[in-house]
Amino acid sequence: MSTIRYTGKRSAFTFLASVSFAAVLAVSLDSAGNQFLGSANAVFQETEADFLPPLPPRVLSADDLAAAQRAWKFFEQNTQSTTGFVNSVAGFSSTTLWDQGSYIFALISAEKLGIISREEASERERRFLDSFLKMELFENRLPNKAYNTQNLDITDYENVVLEEGIGWSALDIARVLLGFRALEKHNPSLSPEIDRVINRWDLGAFANKGELWGATRENGKTILLQEGRLGYEQYGARAAALWGLDVAAAMSAARNLEWVNVEGVAIPRDQRRSSSFKAITPILSEPFLLQAFEIGLNREGEILAHKVYAAQQARFERSGIPTMVSEDHLDQHPSFVYSSVFSNGSAWAVVDESGNRHDKMRTLSTKAVFGWDAIYGTEYVKEMRSHIEDLPEEGDGWQAGIYEDSGATNSVYALNTNAIVLEALHYKAFGPFLGMNR
User: Which positions, given as ranges, span the membrane (predicted)?
Assistant: First the structure.
């Protein structure tokens, strides 16, 4: 693996060159996207739903603005004054890089939607970046997978301090990198501080030879593994490409894509099996929503996103069960699951990180509802939003969703839920943070 460090010598030309590199790849993906659509229709011609393009920006309603203000309450309640980091779950002083990336997008959204002032946003930005400069790195290379938000201690996912760390997540790092790109576009004066943060990171360790690489600790040794499955992998690669990193192989789903019929819709499925690659393969809302909100969907992304959405609507039309699925924190064991359209060989599987099934934990996901509403605004998502807007407002933001099996509220308050609500409403008003609408 490469150990070449990012030099930090970023001129405007370098930044534009990396963006241009990503744009060239995106053009090639547009052609691949048309091939995907033709291939899918050849197999599922009689059942394929009409293709929906994303909607352009539009004026937010009073309900939209109230929803955004409610989401920001989570950040008011859960930002640590000592570090500027935000708890991943309300009241639990732990976080991941993925969630701090979500915070960056939430912060930009809150300012642009008029919820907070430039002065408050600036103070939050400076504290946040100062902590990134201070945090210890896993093996002095890249951020650890988890940190204590009060003191920046390296921890495991249970917030237990582990000085040696537990490794790094390529997808989490990619999310933060994408957040930094959006932040410097929003506030160019922060570029020097962002440079200083990135100068410490060995970016070649997680994005190299066309792939994304994560690290984990096994039996006292650090093991590098190819990271990312369909949807998530393309999201992470597009983020890394904006830093000029070698991720060309991971940018498109084409090499690992196959189709499976779910609810009469041709759903993308990852050819890589969990039994061989030791990783779950969920197809769900999250990575397609984030690509839309943050970078803009290319043609491939538009096709895949619509199919993931269409299967959820089709399930409701067949069964009457409100359906909008994504990854979510839970207010009970196992604390975090991936509610999927298709995962590990089964439609509508709910799996944990180990691939264990928890189908009774399926929820109508708050962030998925707001996300698909922002992208498509169909009558179906409006109906789903009416369910979510009945969730009780208790001053801490939006709860994660509603359990399908019992109808009870999934009452956990999570950073990512509330960040994506803010991102969705930012997208609805302004379009993607980076890139262009089609």
Answer: none
Is 290 a member of any domain?
yes
If you average pLDDT over residues 314-334, what whole number do you get?
98
What backbone torsions phi and psi does residue 269 show, to the nearest 5 degrees?
Answer: -135, 140
Alpha carbon distance 400, 394 (integer Å): 13
How far apart (Å, rounded) are the C-alpha atoms in residues 254 and 270?
Answer: 10
Mean pLDDT over the full length of the chain: 90
Residue-wise pLDDT for 240-252, tens only, equals: 999 999 999 999 9
The parent domain of residue 403 ranges over: 12-430
Number of domains making up the chain? 1
**The domain spanning residue 151 has which CATH number?**
1.50.10.140
Cβ neighbour number for residue 279 with a 10 Å cutoff: 19
Q: Are 281 and 270 in contact (CB under 8 A)?
A: yes
- Strands of the sheet with 350-351, listed across from one edge: 327-329, 336-339, 350-351
**For residue 3, is it within any domain?**
no
Mean pLDDT score, 82-90? 98
Q: Residue 378 pLDDT > 60, yes or no?
A: yes
User: What gap in Å lies between CA 39 and CA 253, rounded to an integer?
Assistant: 14
Task: Locate 333 and state its tokens.
Answer: 């064991």
Question: Whole-angstrom Cα distance, residue 177 to residue 168?
Answer: 14
Q: What is the pTM of this model?
A: 0.91
User: Is residue 438 domain-resident?
Assistant: no
Question: How many CA within 13 A on the CB side of residue 125?
Answer: 26
For residues 291-314, one letter each, b for 16 or more C-beta atoms within 10 angstroms of the residue's C-beta and e for the rest, the string is bbbbbbbbbbbbbbbbbbbbbbbb
224-249 exposure pattern, b = at least 16 Cβ within 10 A, e = fewer:
bebbbbbbbbbbbbbbbbbbbbbbbe
Whether residue 7 lies inside any domain: the answer is: no
